[in-house]
């Protein structure tokens, strides 16, 4: 083996090593990422910023961390955070729906009370 | 020595075979799910979310001893149980909201009905005001000297009724004496008892509608006589005897009331029936009430003029017994009346 051939072999090995390293660091597919993203968007749409700000913040942070871990190649940890983000988004949606429904109940109850008061007022004024 | 080792091994095996380590997270979450399933208000609500929570708890139960995996599954299961609770509460609130919306609809309906009733009442009042304006318009006329007219109670033909005096008719000092009109027994009254200021006024005159009689109320009351077709047993007081819409006598009413009292006093043995009538305008209840109050006012006036209260009965017929059409002002004016009838019935 001539020195030139040896250099070529060394360069080839280095190239293969670099290619293998770069291939290991490319983002692997992360199932559930789109689902968790959609769940977070739904939570924001249903007013989670008002009714469940803590869960919404958790969900957003966990989703962001999951993306970061995915890009770092830590797929298992990314999947774990993705599950937490999804369940926190679902919890935020549930809390938002409960909050909105309770508000509607309060508004309706107040309107009914006003109608009843209006109905009683003329009778009370009648001698 | 071998026995001791065997014993120690048996103890160690027994210890290993004893109750497994309790999973507090699992116990707590199961207890929460059991409480949700037995809650009388929430048990039948949010079944899908509860199924997801139960599945998460089962995954936790089946998890390995890997601490990280267990913590992850406990984290997820705890939130799924929370979601199941919250979803059930949301459904319960939604049911309550529907009930409140139904109640709101019924309250709106009741309010609408009240508003309709108020509008009807306002229309009634408006009609009443129009009626009063019509009566005011009909009330116009110039007072003229009263003319003596005969009134004849049945059963007293031969007796000249006592002329009205100031004491008998204090409210009608200008009323002339009341000679006798045709009696119920068909006995002619003595001609001498009939003053005749004018030929037309010698005979009894039934009250005509105001529009048909241009004379003033005082003039008409001064000529008040039994109704022509009543056989001398009935006198009709027109509504202008009263203030519009009330049971208060007008200023000129005393003349007619005095004549009616004298007419009734001449037949002291007969009971007296006083009926109030109105036209068909306005609500029936209001009309009956007004007609009864007017009849009672006439009764009180007769009692004040010496008629025995025990003889008199009153009724308010409202607009149920019209004598003319209610489609025109003249007819309605005729229908508004008080009838005084001798002999009851």
Commentary on this structure:
The complex is a heterodimer of chains A (127) and B (345). Chain A is mainly alpha-helical and 127 residues long. Helix content of chain A is 87%, strand content 0%. Chain A is built from 5 helices and no strands. Chain A is rod-shaped, with a radius of gyration of 30 Å. The N and C termini of chain A lie far apart (122 Å). The model of chain A has no long low-confidence stretch (mean pLDDT 84). With 345 residues, chain B is of the alpha+beta class. Chain B is 48% helix and 6% strand. Chain B has helices spanning 2-16, 24-38, 47-61, 67-138, 217-222, 253-265, 284-304, 329-335, and strands at 234-238, 272-277, 312-316, 337-342. A 4-stranded mixed sheet of chain B has the order 1-4-2-3. In chain B, α7 links the parallel β2 (272-277) and β3 (312-316). The longest helix of chain B has 72 residues, at 67-138. In chain B, 38% of the residues are buried. The model of chain B is unreliable at 142-150 and 155-212 (pLDDT under 50). The interface between A and B is medium-sized, with 24 and 25 residues.
Q: Based on DSSP secondary structure assignment, what is the total number of beta strands of chain B?
A: 4
H/E series of chain B? HHHHHEHEHEHE
Helix content of chain B: 40-55%
**Could you tell me how far the N terminus lies from the C terminus of chain B, measured between alpha carbons in angstroms?**
132 Å
The largest sheet of chain B, given as strand count, sense and whether it forms a barrel, is: 4 strands, mixed
Global geometry of chain A? rod-shaped
Radius of gyration of chain A over all CA atoms, rounded: 30 Å
Radius of gyration of chain B: 47 Å
Order of helices and strands of chain A: HHHHH
Strand content of chain A: under 5%
Largest interface: A-B, 24 and 25 residues
Unreliable segments of 5+ consecutive residues of chain B: 142-150, 155-212
Mean pLDDT of chain A, as a whole number? 84
Helix and strand content put the structural class of chain B at: alpha+beta
Q: Overall 3D geometry of chain B?
A: rod-shaped
So what's the oligomer here?
Answer: heterodimer
Going across the biggest sheet of chain B, name each strand in turn. 1-4-2-3
- Figure out the total of helices of chain A: 5
Please tally the β strands of chain A and state the result. Answer: 0
The biggest beta sheet of chain A, please?
none
Residue ranges of chain A: pLDDT <50 for 5 or more in a row? none
